[in-house]
């Protein structure tokens, strides 16, 4: 008993120091500090998942359910569900939240946009999810579609803001083009869009991207700066989906996730380093690490690694390849790393060019994720990154200028 008590006391002390050291207050804490202004006397619907917490890890669901003057009447389950009990890609069903007794409507099942019936019992919809700053992460699609639904039904919409863990200055990739819109490329924004959820909501709303404008309120964070990493905020990280276990996972997701759509080499999903790896049976780890390091890619280093995935691509097979390290996120061209890997593999193993060994049925999803049907032919013509860079980067600075007017933080 003495041993257990000591451990519990130590854990509590560490947590107390951690919570007290947070430099940034998320939107939910600012909302609470202001006596839930904007929600008083209203029926409230909430879109959230386990990442919607305050700095003491209390769920936004429970905070709003117990907020004086606020009536939480509906919850809306995005991918993975409100409480995080649904596996990636699995459909979410309607249910009742056991802790609060509040009905839960699925918006990752038969519909991904709240129906009019789902909005009957609310006056205002609240959104509180930790995003990863990448267009293909489905939560911002959920947010935008919910904003559309609320605009159409005359409901208010409130975003409780959170950090962009890739960095609120990081913009990479072309805008989504006709023929490539989907739930992983729902809106015409770059692959890395350099905005917090609240800033993105303002951009989508005021730029007319959603059609009819919604009555939007954004509750900003306190203490946040655009140059902050997530670690700098002092906030606790709750994984927003199973393969984003740490804030740093958000840096690696855009580095390999596009290639991962082809399911022809392991990107670490199914091992202990999701999105950090590029491995296959036919790769020489030492040779690929040497080749990648000789490219002198700014802000990046690579080392050889040998793995045996527990599930997903390469399950149970002895694979080798490289582990990537971001050493300077501001300089690293995160989204291009996977293309540099494909370039070097094509040079080293001409019989294993990625788009020759991948299932062509996956090409359509690849195009949807990159948001263009032009990137793949530009790259595969010579398997040279230089051939695609101008197109990939063509929208970055125009988007930076257009989105800058919606910044909430310096």
| Rg from Cα | 22 Å
Shape call? globular
N/C terminus separation: 50 Å
Structural class: alpha/beta
Strand order of the largest sheet: 3-4-2-1-5-6-9
**Low-pLDDT segments, ≥5 res:** 1-18
On the 0 to 100 scale, the average pLDDT is 93
How much of the sequence is in beta strands?
5-15%
Features:
410 residues, seven-stranded mixed β-sheet, alpha/beta, disordered N terminus, three-stranded antiparallel β-sheet
Question: What do these coordinates show?
Answer:
The protein is of the alpha/beta class. Helices cover 31% and strands 14% of the residues. It has 14 helices and twelve strands. The protein has helices spanning 2-20, 27-33, 60-65, 139-153, 197-206, 230-233, 249-260, 285-294, 337-348, 354-357, 363-370, 375-380, 389-393, 396-403; strands spanning 43-48, 71-77, 95-96, 103-106, 124-128, 156-160, 171-172, 192-193, 215-219, 277-280, 300-307, 319-326. A seven-stranded mixed β-sheet has the order 3-4-2-1-5-6-9. It is globular. The termini are far apart. Residues 1-18 have low confidence and may be disordered.
């Amino acid at each position: 008993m003495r041993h257990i008590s000591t451990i519990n006391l130590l854990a509590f002390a560490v947590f107390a120091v951690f919570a007290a050291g947070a430099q940034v207050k998320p939107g939910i804490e600012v909302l609470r500090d202001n006596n839930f202004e904007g929600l008083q006397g209203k029926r409230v619907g909430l879109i959230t998942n386990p990442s919607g917490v305050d700095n003491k890890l209390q769920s936004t669901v429970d905070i709003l359910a117990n907020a004086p003057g606020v009536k939480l009447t509906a919850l809306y389950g995005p991918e993975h569900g409100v409480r995080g009990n649904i596996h990636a890609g699995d459909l979410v069903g309607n249910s009742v939240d056991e802790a609060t007794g509040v009905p839960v409507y699925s918006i990752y099942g038969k519909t991904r946009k709240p129906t009019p019936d789902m909005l009957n019992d609310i006056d205002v919809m609240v959104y509180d999810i930790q995003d990863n700053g990448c267009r293909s992460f489905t939560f911002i699609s959920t947010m935008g579609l919910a904003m559309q639904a609320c605009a159409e039904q005359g409901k208010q919409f409130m975003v409780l803001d959170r950090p962009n863990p890739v960095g609120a200055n990081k913009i990479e990739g072309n805008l989504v083009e006709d023929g490539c819109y989907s739930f992983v490329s729902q809106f015409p924004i770059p692959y890395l869009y350099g905005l917090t959820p609240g800033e993105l909501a303002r951009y989508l709303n005021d730029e007319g991207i959603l059609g009819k404008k919604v009555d939007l309120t954004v509750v900003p964070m306190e203490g946040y700066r655009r140059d902050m990493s997530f670690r700098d905020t002092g906030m606790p990280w709750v994984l927003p989906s199973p393969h984003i276990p740490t804030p740093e996972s958000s840096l690696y997701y855009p580095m390999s996730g596009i290639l991962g759509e082809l399911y022809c080499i392991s990107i670490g999903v199914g091992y202990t380093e999701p999105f950090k790896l590029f491995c296959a049976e036919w790769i020489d780890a030492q040779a690929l690490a040497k080749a990648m390091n000789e490219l002198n890619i700014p802000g990046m280093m690579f080392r050889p690694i040998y793995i045996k995935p527990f599930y997903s691509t390469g399950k149970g097979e002895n694979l080798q390849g490289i582990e990537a390290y971001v050493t300077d996120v501001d300089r690293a061209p995160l989204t291009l790393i996977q293309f540099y890997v494909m370039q070097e593999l094509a040079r080293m193993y001409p019989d294993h060019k990625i788009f020759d060994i991948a299932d062509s049925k996956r090409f359509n999803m690849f195009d949807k994720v990159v948001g263009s049907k032009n990137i793949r032919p530009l790259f595969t013509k010579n398997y040279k990154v230089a051939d695609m860079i101008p197109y990939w980067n063509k929208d970055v600075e125009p988007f930076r200028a257009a989105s800058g007017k919606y910044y909430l933080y310096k």
